[in-house]
Amino acid sequence: MSSLPPPASPMAGAGAGAGAEDEARDWAEMPSDALAAVFGKLDVAEILTGAGLVCRAWRRLAATDPTLWRRVDLCHQGDLLETEEAEAMARAAIDRAAGTMEAFWADTFVTDNLLHYISQRAPSLKSLQLSLCHYVSNEGFSEAISCFPQLEELDVTFCSLHGSVCDTVGRACPQLKHFRLNERWSILQSEFAPYEGMDDDTEALGIASTMPGLQELQLIGNNLTNDGLMAILDRCPHLESLDIRQCYNIQMDDVMKAKCARIRDVKLPHDSISDFKYRAYIVSSIANSGSDFEVDMYDDLLDVVTEDDDADFDDIDDFDDTGSDGGMYNDDFDM
């Protein structure tokens, strides 16, 4: 977590001469525009658990400046905090955005209830990214997504959503340009797909019929077949990027290669998965056995929660499902 200089002590510079006294600064008196610029370089967790708690002036800015909360990135917080703690943090950020939030990114801890909370308070949302959110159901997701007509980017990775969800998304979000729906392809699928009907074009046909404006499509591990991919290529003429890695029901014959040739950036079923953020969660299939799936997805996670960080959440037990900020996030400035 980024550290900020502590507020200057009234005794700073005592006995060191007038020059040292002149250099002392009261950080609480920093101009609001300068303070907002500093806060703008911090992430949501750093503001809620650190800078936003330093003093009355800093707490007021953190609670009342909605521009700080337009982009809410809480990825990895579900791994560092309990689900209730991470959800309390998310609700606080959503409330402080005051209807101006344009991006919400999170993993693991998101539930149907939290997604509903966002849908009622973020009508201008343009980017939604959810990964490993197993507490989000098809029904809860479908209900929430209908409240985001301005959505331009949607990333749903390993969230167990399936079936008609793509059709629902396309009809609810006519401005969608970037869509990522990633799943796990397992050894079981590789062995039995030809016999058990594990090929499925439901999602592909939903995309083809409702998302004509797509520019980027990522379907890692999807069960679509050549028929489904052909429908997408025929009905999504603006595609510039297509990622169908680990889609092993796809047969890249000459016809399919010719169809894909018009797309600038194409990743094919057997291409390397090494640059995929959540590659460590993919189960190696027979077709890709011995590849580099053991790489830890947290290589780029540079920060950890310390005992001091954990202490910031002592009041989190007061969190109420019907509330938003939990005990520690109320906007009482009498500090």
Automatic annotation (TrEMBL):
Family annotation (SMART domains): LRR_CC (SM00367)
UniProt region (Disordered), positions on chain: 1-24
Q: Which domain of life is it from?
A: Eukaryota
Q: Which residues form the F-box domain?
A: 24-72
Query: SUPFAM superfamilies per the record?
Result: F-box domain, RNI-like
InterPro entries tied to this protein: F-box-like_dom_sf (IPR036047), F-box_dom (IPR001810), Leu-rich_rpt (IPR001611), Leu-rich_rpt_Cys-con_subtyp (IPR006553), LRR_dom_sf (IPR032675)
Per UniProt, what is one Pfam family of this protein? F-box-like
Task: Name the chain's protein.
Answer: F-box domain-containing protein
Q: Which organism is it from?
A: Urochloa decumbens
Taxonomy of origin reads: Eukaryota, Viridiplantae, Streptophyta, Embryophyta, Tracheophyta
